[in-house]
Q: What sequence folds into this?
């Protein structure tokens, strides 16, 4: 800072030269770049780039990683112009509600054009992390050919590719350390993509193919695991049997993160004890997931490895309360736990009892559409966890009904929530004891949890919930709303009251044009707004687009729908202007 | 389908909203969100689930892809959208849990007039309604629900019914037998034009 002040005092003219600056004992650019280069945090780098031109330049030259939360907010040309030396790119594409089929296929977010520009401007690209993007096999093949230093690819919730694309990556990325395919819609064609890794290839550290349905070539897998001595993360798919798992663990006892295959196979006593000793040899295991198809009798083989576990992802393993309780006795160090609601309240009590260090809990529904007396977890399980796990700060909880009092108790026990996502699965479900709306529950959350960054609300909710949110949730960045609110006033409260709001996603709420337009000033400070099946009209959207030219206001039109209604609206700030690749059903206003 | 939908709306809005909305601001559209007891029994005759408990009324509506805001009842495309958009569980997770027994039952599905078929895992769905909705979305058409009685049909060629080939090689209408029995006898599915049946 000092060097800049000095410069200002000397009334530096535009022609002043480098020598002059050196004379004033400012940092030379190389040093400045070196220092700023050490900054890792995106927020810090953003702040630094605003200080003065020299710092802006030092920052842009020294930046190696870039995160783009909305791929349409900037173009690859603009990106590569500002940051010439990027090695790692993270890109997010479709709006989050595309996970729940609210965004039609072929909406966009195709990576290909980005790759073409990167091939020219970032030939030394090493890492690509994509979420909710469309990635074709051609793109993957192009990537494998174009970047000789390529090391890590992570694809989450992406679609459009098949195992052919994976084969290309395996074959051509000689320096690959990470191949992480999570939750994608992938066409599982050939089971031989694993054989495409050359015999000489040994650099792999992360391999995650858990989402693939078909068998993989186990022989190739075993050989790969054997020769990749640095392998730390291995997440298998359900085709891998317990016997095969044992063989892999034998080869890779150094693993830190393991996703098992199917956890159910007829094992002989010999095989069982071999599996057990394989697990006890994995001294570094901190994350366990997978357990597709669990035979609970085999869970004890995990016990030796449980003591060091910090993350247990059982979201695909519908265990009952007894099984989970017996396992959790051994898991005192758990920080993050993802389970299915088949464990019921009794299982959650076990969580509260045995996992005092728990920070994050996610409870998924086994049967979201069940009718009648479906079981699952309730308010008492929620309270039980909060009583035993005072460090809880992240919760995602699916239940069929809840009470205001329970939520109030939970946040009283755990006031440090940063992420509170409650999904009462019946829309418009009131407090089942008092029959009142669930306003007071979320009121308690926002009043008590001052650090709250992310909130998802559900149940019968009036505008009062939104008044509370606008008044108290001063650190809120992401809000998800469904089937809630009474009038435009609700949405207005949030838009006017939450200074740090970045992402607002709304569906099936009675918010119309007045609500939409009340955020006129706000949307440029946010990443995006999604509104579907609300009461917004095309005219409202046109007005917004007219008043705020730097926003992209997009409407997704459905066939045969009323022309004046805007069923699905996606509003986001962008320096790249309107989309050039919008399909016919996306109207940019 | 449209009139059936409108009729459902009438039932829901006609019933007095439950006394639970004692608090605060007038809840106008929220009335539609109230599972009202009087609508539940009659709704069963309109191709909704036969289990007519208060709570399940809405989840049934949602499974049929019906929005709860009245203005959207008239858009057929809203119904065609898959039932899998609520609750917000990712489809990969949902289908995996359903497949947890590691048994899948993939059958071929053809739509009349389209030579290339699709494949669908029947066990990823719990009942006829879920199956019909998934297929309606997959093929982007209106498929009449199997256990509806007399329906005012939309005229035109965009309405189909679902048929299946059973173990004896006969082509039958889907929906006559219990779901579990259907699973044991179905070999293939075909989506045929409604006016052909």
A:
């Amino acid at each position: 800072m000092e060097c800049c002040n000095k410069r200002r005092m000397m009334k530096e003219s535009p022609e002043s030269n480098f020598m002059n600056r050196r004379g004033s004992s400012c940092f030379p650019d190389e040093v400045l770049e070196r220092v700023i280069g050490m900054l890792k945090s995106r927020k810090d780098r953003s702040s630094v780039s605003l200080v003065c031109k020299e710092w802006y330049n030092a920052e842009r030259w020294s930046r190696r990683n870039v995160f783009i939360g909305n791929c349409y907010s900037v173009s690859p040309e603009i990106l590569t112009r500002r940051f010439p030396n990027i090695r790692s790119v993270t890109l997010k594409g479709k709006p989050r509600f595309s996970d729940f089929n609210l965004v039609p296929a072929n909406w966009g977010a195709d990576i290909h054009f980005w790759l073409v520009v990167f091939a020219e401007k970032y030939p030394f690209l090493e890492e690509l992390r994509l979420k909710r993007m469309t990635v074709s096999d051609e793109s993957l093949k192009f990537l494998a050919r174009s970047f000789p230093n390529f090391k890590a690819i992570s694809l989450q919730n992406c679609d459009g590719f098949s195992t052919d694309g994976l084969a290309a990556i395996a074959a051509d990325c000689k320096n690959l350390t990470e191949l992480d395919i999570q939750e994608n819609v992938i066409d599982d064609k050939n089971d031989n993509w694993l054989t495409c890794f050359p015999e000489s290839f040994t650099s792999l550290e992360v391999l995650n193919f858990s989402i693939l349905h078909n068998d993989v070539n186990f022989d190739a897998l075993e050989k790969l695991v054997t020769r990749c001595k640095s392998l730390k993360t291995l997440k298998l798919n359900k085709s891998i049997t317990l016997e095969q798992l044992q063989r892999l663990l034998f080869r890779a006892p150094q693993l830190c993160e393991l996703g098992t295959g199917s956890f159910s196979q007829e094992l002989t006593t010999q095989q069982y004890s071999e599996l057990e000793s394989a697990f006890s040899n994995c001294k570094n295991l901190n994350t366990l997931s997978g357990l597709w198809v669990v035979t609970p009798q085999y869970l004890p083989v995990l016990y030796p490895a449980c003591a060091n576990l910090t993350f247990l992802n059982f979201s695909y393993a519908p265990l009952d309360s007894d099984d989970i309780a017996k396992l959790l006795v051994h898991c005192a160090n758990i920080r993050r736990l993802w389970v299915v609601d088949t464990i019921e309240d009794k299982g959650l009590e076990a969580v509260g009892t045995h996992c005092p260090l728990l920070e994050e809990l996610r409870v998924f529904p086994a049967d979201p559409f069940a009718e009648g007396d479906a079981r699952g977890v309730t308010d008492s399980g929620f309270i039980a966890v909060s009583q035993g796990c005072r460090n809880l700060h992240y919760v995602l909880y699916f239940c069929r009904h809840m009470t205001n009092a329970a939520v109030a108790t939970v946040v009283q026990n755990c006031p440090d929530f940063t992420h509170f996502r409650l999904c009462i699965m019946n829309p418009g479900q009131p407090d089942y004891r008092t029959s009142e709306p669930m306003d007071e529950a979320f009121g308690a959350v926002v009043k008590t949890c001052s650090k709250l960054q992310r909130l998802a609300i559900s149940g019968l909710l009036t505008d009062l919930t939104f008044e509370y949110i606008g008044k108290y949730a001063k650190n809120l960045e992401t809000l998800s709303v469904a089937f809630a609110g009474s009038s435009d006033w609700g949405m207005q409260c949030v838009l006017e009251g939450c200074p740090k709001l970045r992402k607002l996603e709304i569906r099936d709420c009675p918010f119309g044009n007045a609500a939409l337009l009340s955020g006129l000033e706000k949307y440029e400070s946010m990443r995006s707004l999604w509104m579907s099946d609300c009461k917004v009209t095309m005219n409202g959207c046109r007005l917004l687009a007219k008043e705020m030219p730097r926003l992209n206001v997009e409407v997704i039109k459905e066939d045969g729908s009323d022309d004046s209604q805007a069923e699905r609206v996606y509003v986001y700030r962008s320096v790249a202007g309107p989309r050039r690749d919008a399909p016919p059903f996306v109207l940019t206003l | 389908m449209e009139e059936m939908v409108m009729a459902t709306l009438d039932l829901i809005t006609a019933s007095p909203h439950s006394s639970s909305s004692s608090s605060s601001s007038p809840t106008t559209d929220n009335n539609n969100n109230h599972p009202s007891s009087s609508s539940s029994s009659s709704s069963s005759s309109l191709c909704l689930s036969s289990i007519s408990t208060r709570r399940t009324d809405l989840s049934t509506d949602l499974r049929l892809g019906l929005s709860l805001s009245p203005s959207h009842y008239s858009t057929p495309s809203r119904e065609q959208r898959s039932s899998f958009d609520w609750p917000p569980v990712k489809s990969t997770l949902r289908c995996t849990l359903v497949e947890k027994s590691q048994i899948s039952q993939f059958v071929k599905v053809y739509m009349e007039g389209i030579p290339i078929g699709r494949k669908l895992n029947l066990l990823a769905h719990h009942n006829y309604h879920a199956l019909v909705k998934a297929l309606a979305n997959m093929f982007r058409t209106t498929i009449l629900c199997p256990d509806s009685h007399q329906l005012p049909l939309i005229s035109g060629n965009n309405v189909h019914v679902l048929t299946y080939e059973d173990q004896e090689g006969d082509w039958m209408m889907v929906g006559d037998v219990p779901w579990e029995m259907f699973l044991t006898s179905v070999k293939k599915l075909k989506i045929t034009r409604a006016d052909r049946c």
Remarks:
- The first strand of chain A starts at residue 65 and ends at 68.
- The domain at 29-63 of chain A is CATH 1.20.1280.50 (Monooxygenase).
- Chain A touches chain B through 64 residues (CB under 8 Å).
